[in-house]
Amino acid sequence: MGEDATPQVSSRATELAEAAMAGDRGALARLLTAVENRTPLAEAALRRLYPVAGKAHLVGITGPPGSGKSTLVAALIGVVRAAGRAVAVVAVDPSSPITGGALLGDRVRMQSYAGDQAVFIRSMASRGHAGGLASTTTTAAAVLDAAGFDLVLIETVGTGQSEVEVAAAADTTVVLEAPEMGDEVQAIKAGLLEVADLVVVNKGDKPGALRTAAQLRAMLVPTVARTPTDRPTPKRPEVMVTTASTGEGVPELLAALDRHRATGRAAESGGARRTRAEAQVWAILGERLRASLVAPERAGTTEAVLEDVAAHRLDPYAAADRLLRELTAG
Ligand SMILES: Nc1nc2c(ncn2[C@@H]2O[C@H](COP(=O)(O)OP(=O)(O)O)[C@@H](O)[C@H]2O)c(=O)[nH]1
Ligand SMILES: [Mg+2]
Description:
This protein is an alpha/beta fold and 330 residues long. It is built from 14 helices and seven strands. α10 (209-219) links the parallel β6 (198-201) and β7 (238-241). It starts with 6 loop residues before the first helix and ends with a helix.
């Protein structure tokens, strides 16, 4: 890890990066594995790829398990391909990986993309500490972006904090809901709606879909930005209804994504990109600091400081200061 990739790793990384950018799917897959495993190869490759990335539209698709995210992604792939456009998918839903879950249920349709150079689907294991998922996903998206995919869909299961993190990695965030069984739209976490650029009520073929959409529209009064740098304009996400299993409403969803991309580019994209850059760099910096402090030459000191905090001999702030001094002294 770090800047000290060996010359062999660097040249292998450059080779793979060049190959991926030239359309070599094997090279792209190997790079994404390296990204997932956070190897020096991935970092070295990113040095070549990152300057080329930044053009793609990154779309996060999140929502509760079973709301139809994978099915909707499959339907979107169909509409995007029908328009002659390329699309890559990163699925970070561990409970139903896109390669083994619902998309395989859509076997016939997916098989037709097996030899299609303009479709690339990848599932990512969700592992590691807070922030790890987001940085891995963001890096994977940058690799796909550099490889020439103009649209990158990121499917994340909406069960906790991770989807909010991943949403921060996207240009456009779609929050999916299925029609409610009960009377209220209570299942949607406030945090999720806050990150939504578009809200989609899927399973439009089920009773209550239109009512759920109407309730959501009533709920979604414009939110005001919390800080001047954070989302500069108040937004009122559009609420749409889709039936992913039949494809109904999916072309309209793609059109809405394209609209959001176009207006986002003009209005808030600069701020969102800056926010994303900050989140990434701070997360990586935190990981690097931590890695340095648990490296063999410092592990003893670090362990002793942590013990002192656990025993209340040292407060956590003083501990952090002491560890920072260790780093700057070494
Ligand atoms: N009736 C109906 N079922 C759907 C629709 N979209 C998805 N499903 C079904 O809902 C279940 C969960 O879908 P899946 O895409 O795996 O949801 P995910 O967990 O959010 O990725 C599957 O059985 C799908 O076939 C829809 O529009 N209508
Ligand atoms: Mg899924």
